[in-house]
Amino acid sequence: MEVLPRFSNRLLSLSSINPNSKSLITPFFHLQFCQLPTSNPLPICPNPLKTTRFFSTKPLNSSSSSPSPLTTRAGWLLGLREKNQQKLPDLVKAGDPVLHEPAREVDPNEIGSEKIQKIIDDMIKVMRVAPGVGLAAPQIGIPLKIIVLEDTKEFISYAPKEEIKAQDRRPFDLLVIVNPVLKKKSNRTALFFEGCLSVDGYRAVVERYLDVEVKGLDQYGQPIKVDASGWQARILQHECDHLEGTLYVDKMMPRTFRTVENLDLPLAVGCPKLGARKISS
Ligand SMILES: [Zn+2]
């Protein structure tokens, strides 16, 4: 899920930046494109990765024998060496059938296999490089029920305090959930803008439950149960939706869809306010 903290790129250690990412941009340059909006009390930073690119987006380990000077320069700045680079799967974008069809359950006996472990590893790397706070296997083209999510204290610290509080956003360690089954634990809901790495460049308001429980298996095949609330509950719902072939745009509030550049413009007349609200049971 593309609910990025402001300045998130600045938080990535240089060594963690994937040279193959299409969104190669230096942390330094990112800063000027991520001014804090002031008009919206709950803004989310435009995806820094959609801003003007200073360097070629061509993968550094491209098969081309003559990398562009700009690409070479980026590699030099990041201290990367071609021989250490490993290509990660591309993020699948909206429109690809894999994002619009239900994913298959993973055979519990296969979770320990090299194949599934590699998928999980790739998902974690892709999520962190993007960067995002959650990812579902279909987003790297794998139609299996696997999700990963993570929100760090450091990431959150770059969001405005009032936003963190309103969203009930708290850090949590990396979670890998295979065959997740999500259940709401209350009728409390909240409306906030959210985005998706597979629909990058856009945001829309989505109403989500504030309290959920997710059961499944961890990356070792052991049963796992997660009780989540607030922003973590939103991420879980977003990622579990992916496994049903549902994108946030399939359940967004009408007339709230917008580009990240227009995120701070007022909501249309008649749209409900952002924040928590109760719904009748
Ligand atoms: Zn998503």
Describe this structure in words.
- The chain is α+β, with helices and mostly antiparallel strands.
- The chain folds into two domains: 75 residues, no CATH class; 180 residues, Peptide Deformylase, CATH 3.90.45.10.
- The structure holds zinc ion.
- Zinc ion binds next to helix 7.
**What's the domain count?**
2
**Content of β-strand:** 15-25%
Order of strands across the main sheet:
1-2-3-6-7
The coarse overall form would be globular
Q: Quote the CATH topology of the largest domain.
A: Peptide Deformylase
Query: Hetero groups bound?
Result: zinc ion
Low-confidence stretches: 4-83
- The overall pLDDT average reads 78
What's the tally of helices? 7
The CATH architecture of the largest domain:
Alpha-Beta Complex
Main CATH class of the largest domain:
Alpha Beta
Percent of residues in helical segments?
A: 10-25%
> How many beta strands in the DSSP annotation?
9
CATH superfamily of the largest domain: Peptide deformylase
Distance between the termini: 28 Å
State the order of secondary-structure elements, H for helix, E for strand.
HHHHEEHHEEEEEHEE
Q: Would you tell me the structural class of the helices and strands?
A: alpha+beta
- Largest sheet data: 5 strands, antiparallel
Gyration radius from CA atoms, angstroms: 19 Å
